[in-house]
Amino acid sequence: MKNKAKQTSELNKKQSLVMNLLSEAKGPLSAYQILHDLNDNGFRGPTQVYRVLDKLLELGMVHRIESMNSFVACRQEKCHEKNKDINLFTICKICGSVQELLSNGLKNIVKSLSKDNNFLLKSSVLELNGVCSKCKE
User: Fold this and answer.
1) Whether 58 contacts 82, CB under 8 Å
2) Which of 75, 98, 103, 123 is deepest in the core (most CB within 10 A)?
């Protein structure tokens, strides 16, 4: 897999716009929020946004937060190479911040559970909901 800097330079205009918006966002964004924010930049419907998001997901540059039906920029270097089948996030119930975590231990546990139950794991997203350190204070 190519590194993220090289990937970013190979994105088309709409992909770059979405990637920049997600990278600068303080929290996860829904496809409709992205559409609203980029409407003046040639995005005319949700299909265009979802097509771009699908490509960015495939490249490992963004992640989908399942419980929020929203997306965040990947902030982990080589995440897609290391953790392509298991993603772990903490989600603050107060401020809505999302943090991506990498855990080889968790990855091994999930794979072991899958193997023990004769289950072929394709992907897994684990979302931990709670209160972040900033909101806890």
Assistant:
1) no
2) 98
> Could you tell me if 1 and 81 are in contact, meaning their C-beta atoms sit under 8 angstroms apart?
yes
For residue 63, what are its two tokens?
């992640």
Question: CA of 72: how far to CAs of 89, 100, 115, 116, in Å?
Answer: 11, 9, 30, 32
Of 12, 15, 120, nearest in space to 61 by CA: 15
In the CATH hierarchy, which top-level class contains the domain 4-136? Answer: mainly alpha
pLDDT > 90: percent of the chain: 60
pLDDT digits (tens, 9 = 90+) for 64-118: 999 999 999 998 766 655 556 688 899 999 999 999 988 888 888 988 999 999 9
What pTM did the predictor assign?
Answer: 0.81
Contacts of 97 (CB under 8 A, 6+ apart): 26, 27, 91, 132, 134
CB 53 within 8 A of CB 31: yes
